[in-house]
Design a protein that fits this description.
The chain is α/β, with parallel strands linked by helices and 329 residues long. The protein is built from ten helices and nine strands. It has a single domain, classed as Vaccinia Virus protein VP39 (Rossmann fold, 3-Layer(aba) Sandwich). 35% of the residues lie in helices and 24% in strands. The strands form two sheets. The chain has a seven-stranded mixed β-sheet, with helices on both faces. A two-stranded antiparallel sheet has the order 1-2.
Amino acid sequence: MCQRSGRRIRGVAVWGRGKRVKSVFSLPPLQMGERNPEMGFRMTVNYDENQHIMTGPISNTSPEKYTHGHHASVVSAHAVRRASEAAAFVLPQLKSPMRILDFGCGPGTITVDLAEHVLPDGSVLGIDSSETVIDQARATAVEKGISNVEFGVRSIYDTGYASESFDAAYAHQVLQHLSEPVRALVEAKRVLKPGGICAVREVDWGTTAFWPQDDRLSKFLDVYYRVAERNGGDAHAGRRLKHWYVDAGFSDLVVTTSTWTFSDDAGLNWWGEQWAERVLRSDLAKRAVEYGIATEAELGEISQGWLDWIEASGAFLMFSQVEVVGTKA
């Protein structure tokens, strides 16, 4: 559960019609689960009714369409993720001197944590299709002084690594965005040594429950589902994850679940503020308009819905995560 860590939230989101409104929001560190280290960041939201919401190119123009893209609002949200929460289901099995592949590593905060976890003799390689986030991941490793980690721009469909060259593979919220998730798992299995493990965590957006009921937030879920499907992804990946592992030929599957819950002020603000911006600025928004799934005006209403939800009495949101660890026979 997201909890306060002792520091107060500074600032309140402000939204307006017919004029430019800027909301600068500074959050206290959040704790997503009891083991998660502190997380914190600064976010800026801008809206101008007299200008088009969708500006700039789609950030991922490869055949695989990453639903979120790499707008600053997306990357900053992903950069607060830590291995202590996102990889808690597999951390006890990861030890020095293991060599680990983190595919779809994004800005690398989880990857760097994994590298530190397998010290002194283990190592981690993080790969992603985005050069932008790989550059950020490298900078994070340098900043933290972690030297047993490397990053590269590679495809999970064809990593280029030798067969049987890793002890473990890991991914967090990756397969849901792929048109061929089983193919990605098969490649992960190829690079694993016999007895190696592959650990993946995927959300199931279909388990989302929120309060109070709001047609704008229901519309958000509909938009998200439809854009993800049109992109070739699967917003309900969590429930299909075990099946994908079976099709990829993994054995000794261990399946667990966990939840993300947003209920206190810190959690409500973190979740609501980021989505108020992402639904306007990220590739999700741009694709929604491009595909004719939502208009700019509708996305503006959804954005306002997230900000209103933050302030609503009894506001609450949760959804489920599914985790699978499989072994290469």
